[in-house]
Design brief:
Layout (H helix, E strand, L loop, with lengths): L1 H36 L3 E7 L18 H9 L1 E3 L2 E2 L5 H10 L3 H4 L16 H6 L4 E7 L26 E5 L32 E2 L2 E2 L8 H18 L4 E6 L11 H4 L7 H26 L6 E7 L5 H5 L17 H4 L3 E4 L8 E3 L3 E2 L3 H8 L16 H4 L11 E7 L4 E8 L2 E4 L8 E4 L15 H25 L4
Parallel strand pairs: 1-8, 1-9, 2-11, 3-12, 4-5, 4-8
Antiparallel strand pairs: 2-10, 5-6, 6-7, 9-10, 13-14, 14-15, 15-16
Helix pairs in contact: 6-8
Length: 480
């Protein structure tokens, strides 16, 4: 009898161990399936006027950007990434739509607004159950309905798929964004020390609290609670964080100025503001890790265009090895720092020279999420999924076309990049130039007279794209 009981107890203990093991296995498999089959969160981060050479991961040894540098080591770094235009508003339109700003009638800053008919990433993801939030500089139309201005139209982020918003129309000081910096007498400055430019609106209502100190921290203070709510509701989120840094007036607080004691004061402010932004990116990553969603969150980072021309000419900001700056069709105005990170999914430590652009974000995100864009509306971007996954070493077959148009000084500039060659009109009145940007990234030798047939072929390619742009903005893509 005792032997029977002893044997029974032994079998029962073995059963419990096997059952516990099975519970663990099924629990693990369930967790794994949820991670694989669930919807990843997506975060789009963009800096404003950040030069290619003003981050550590692109070789700047003086600037302090440890969190961005870590992302470059852990994720994918693009060395050949282009903004859709050499200035802010057009590029921002391209990010959200996958389409050239010329298709949308957004030719320059302040000169338009995103059309309601455009399909945006937040609209498409919202329809798939994502919570959508926008935080920072919008610059795709007015955000105050009763404030009529001389240029642009009323087209706030909540018209385009965003549920939660904390936004300014355009630039603000990067430290104390409600005050005019003591050294600043440009746009937005007021004699009484207040800021006369853009203001923050939270879900359409002017904000008065928590607007002191570093502007990047002020933005992140609103973005993190939005993501916390989505996590609490077990909902995936799409978060757009568009920093004002380091657009002028660029100001750093005392703590960040102190990090660069040996640099000229203007560079201390520029570098200090960039380091403050980098700290907030580090804060964001720590938040994702604490909430155990780091491996289920995709982060894309880039700048909207090259660095400020005034700061480049003073030797304060840098486009790295490239010629030119913001407002130029040279590489320095278009080629920007860029990263992508999705731990355990994107290839870690990948450095790619694949030619890519801000128009590629929408098709890439949709491809990763197994969603298909509308076949009726032409896109200018391509999916980078196989690139960031490390599955493809082929080069881009779709050319990258850019433009910048303004009545001021009859500006009508273009660039067309097809593989190693680029044609561009750098300045008003210039003839079209041709460069081999693979062997001459500094654009020092114009090949137009040496290779007239190639120039003619690429000009024809650009004209074909421009005609497609024209048809789009005149209504071909939409049913009114």
């Amino acid at each position: 009898m005792n032997r029977k009981i002893s044997g029974y107890n032994m079998e029962f203990r073995c059963f419990k161990k096997r059952a516990a093991l099975l519970v663990f296995i099924f629990s693990f498999l369930g967790s794994y399936a949820q991670n694989v089959n669930g919807k990843p969160n997506v975060i789009l981060i963009m800096a404003d006027d950040l030069g290619y050479g003003d981050v550590g991961f692109n070789g700047n040894e003086k600037i302090i950007t440890p969190y961005l540098d870590a992302m470059a080591k852990e994720g994918v770094k693009f060395t050949n990434f282009y903004a859709a235009a050499p200035l802010c508003s057009p590029t921002r339109a391209s990010v959200l739509t996958g389409r050239s700003p010329y298709r949308q009638g957004i030719f320059a800053a302040h000169t338009g607004g995103m059309r309601p008919a455009e399909k945006t990433i937040p609209e498409l993801l919202k329809n798939k159950g994502y919570k959508t939030g926008f935080f920072g500089k919008w610059h795709l139309g007015w955000i105050e309905p009763n404030k009529v201005e001389s240029r642009g139209v009323y087209s706030p982020p909540w018209f385009h798929g965003y549920e939660e918003t904390f936004a300014t129309k355009s630039a603000v000081p990067t430290w104390d964004p409600t005050k005019t910096p003591s050294f600043w007498n440009g746009f937005g400055s007021e004699d009484d020390g207040s800021w006369g430019g853009s203001i923050y609106l939270e879900n359409g209502v002017p904000v008065t609290d928590n607007l002191e100190g570093d502007d990047s921290r002020i933005i992140m203070d609103r973005a993190i609670p939005f993501m916390e709510k989505a996590i609490a509701g077990n909902e995936p989120f799409f978060t757009t964080i568009w920093f004002h840094t380091p657009h002028e007036p660029v100001v750093a607080g005392p703590e960040y100025l102190a990090k660069y004691p040996d640099l000229p004061i203007e560079q201390r402010h520029l570098y200090g503001a960039i380091t403050a932004m980098d700290d907030q990116i580090g804060r964001l990553r720590a938040f994702l890790k604490v909430n155990n969603i780091e491996d289920n969150t995709i982060i894309f980072f880039c700048s909207d265009n090259g660095p400020s021309g005034g700061l480049v000419k003073k030797g304060i900001a840098s486009a790295g090895p490239f010629r030119g700056h913001k407002h130029d069709m040279w590489e320095g105005g278009l080629r920007v720092p860029s990263l992508a990170l999705w731990p355990n999914h994107f290839k870690s430590g990948l450095v790619t020279d694949y030619q890519s652009s801000t128009v590629d974000y929408l098709p890439t995100i949709l491809d990763i999420l197994n969603m298909s864009p509308s076949k009726k509306i032409p896109l200018d971007g391509v999916s980078l999924k196989s690139v960031v996954m490390g599955e493809s070493t082929s080069q881009r077959t779709v050319p990258i076309a850019s433009g910048f148009q303004r009545l001021y000084k009859d500006i009508d500039l273009y660039a067309f990049i097809d593989g190693q060659y680029k044609i561009c009109i750098p300045n008003p009145g210039d003839e079209m130039m041709l460069f081999d940007i693979k062997n001459d990234p500094g654009e020092t030798k114009n090949l137009a007279s040496e290779q007239p047939e190639l120039l003619k072929k690429m000009e024809a390619g650009l004209e074909k794209v421009k005609e497609s742009w024209r048809l789009s903005r005149e209504g071909k893509d939409y049913q009114w």
